[in-house]
């Protein structure tokens, strides 16, 4: 109901880890996430430590939510890098939102390296009671 992730993303990530990027040892540019439902909304959390809030870009197009963020190196001028293990560059992830979610009402909050999205359920997807008419109030449906 919530979403499905892009299966090719995981294949690309695995290939990058095994074969490396540009003939070097690859460091996967991951954007780990958790997704869960609380009441009438879904919550999706992405780990983006060290990412500046103004580098985060969220887009929704045809029920596809794209999260894009960039982490630049923060070395000082003239620094000789000895070890560089932290992933840098552009991170991107797409989520395919179900039709039962209000893609136009996504709320985003970034705090302590975690991007939290709250996506409400559409009214048509919320549980509701249906009145059962009996006796003379019953209506006949012609097929």
UniProtKB/TrEMBL annotation:
This is HSP20 family protein. PROSITE patterns: SHSP. It comes from Labedaea rhizosphaerae. Residues 24-135 form the SHSP domain. Belongs to the small heat shock protein (HSP20) family. InterPro entries: A-crystallin/Hsp20_dom (IPR002068), HSP20-like_chaperone (IPR008978), Small_HSP (IPR031107). Signal peptide: none annotated. The lineage of its organism: Bacteria, Bacillati, Actinomycetota, Actinomycetes, Pseudonocardiales. It holds the Pfam family HSP20.
């Amino acid at each position: 109901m919530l979403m499905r992730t892009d299966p090719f993303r995981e294949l690309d990530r695995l290939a990058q880890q095994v074969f490396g990027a540009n003939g070097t040892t690859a460091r996967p540019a991951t954007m780990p996430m958790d997704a869960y439902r609380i009441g009438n909304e879904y919550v999706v959390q992405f780990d983006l430590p060290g990412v500046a809030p103004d580098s985060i870009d969220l887009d929704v197009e045809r029920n596809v939510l794209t999260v894009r963020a960039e982490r630049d190196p923060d070395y000082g001028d003239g620094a000789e890098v000895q070890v560089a293990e932290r992933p840098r560059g552009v991170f991107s992830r797409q989520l395919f939102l179900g039709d039962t979610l209000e893609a136009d009402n996504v709320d985003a909050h970034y705090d302590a390296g975690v991007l939290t999205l709250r996506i409400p359920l559409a009214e048509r997807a919320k549980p509701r009671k249906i009145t059962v008419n009996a006796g003379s109030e019953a209506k006949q449906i012609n097929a």
